[in-house]
Amino acid sequence: MLSAPLPSVRVALRSPALAAGVAALLQGFGLTLAEGAEADVLVVDDPWLSDPEALAAEVEGVAGVVALGSPAWVSTLHEAAPGGWAALGTDATPAELLAGVLAAAAGLAALPPEEVLPARDEPDDPGPSPADITLTPRERDVLALLAEGLSNKRAARELGVSESTVKFHVQAVYSKLGVQSRAGAVTRGVQLGLISV
Asked: What digits encode the pLDDT tens for the residues 62-83?
């Protein structure tokens, strides 16, 4: 049983095979089904893998993409998704599907725990090991606020510091995690167990 109300997320389903079962699950969680440009999150399945151009046109303008099916979605979405994304197996539980939709809508990446991604910034660089990373308490706070999707300005208000101070800490986090973007920092932070989503 959920204890807090869910955010308002509009979901579009782009597969007749998904329409019945997935639609019922998502509506059961109180999410709204939408069409095309009105959707926040697009849900697709394996037939879309064979037509990358059509997929690119579909995902343009949505906050996130959830793909159900093949493990190939992990690398496809890691490289091509404009915002948040989730790659789930066809055996995903209703709770995993909901978590994937909410993560994608929030601009985060969600994938099965057995999958590990390289950093988007430098795919061949495994990055620092968890033992090599020491974030200050303030840097951990800033990383957590990045994971929540806060801008530097909002993070500064939340922490009671200047925006330039937040920018300084963001750059320190990027450096210590070996990344060059907010998405990379959040992904690496989750992989290293520094934050949870």
From this structure: 778 888 888 777 777 777 676 7
Find where tokens 């079962």 sit.
21
Fold classified for 130-191: Arc Repressor Mutant, subunit A (1.10.10)
Fold adopted by 10-110: Rossmann fold (3.40.50)
Q: What 3-state DSSP class applies to 136?
A: coil
What are 91-100's pLDDT values in tens digits?
Answer: 778 888 888 8
Whether 176 and 128 have beta carbons less than 8 Å apart is answered as yes
Proportion of the chain above pLDDT 90, given as a percent: 4
- What's the token pair of residue 39? 């959707």
Judge contact between 71 and 47, C-beta under 8 A: no
Q: Where are the domains of the chain?
A: 10-110, 130-191
Please answer whether residues 183 and 78 qualify as being in contact, where contact means their C-beta atoms are separated by less than 8 angstroms.
no
Give the span between the Cα atoms of 85 and 161, in whole angstroms.
31
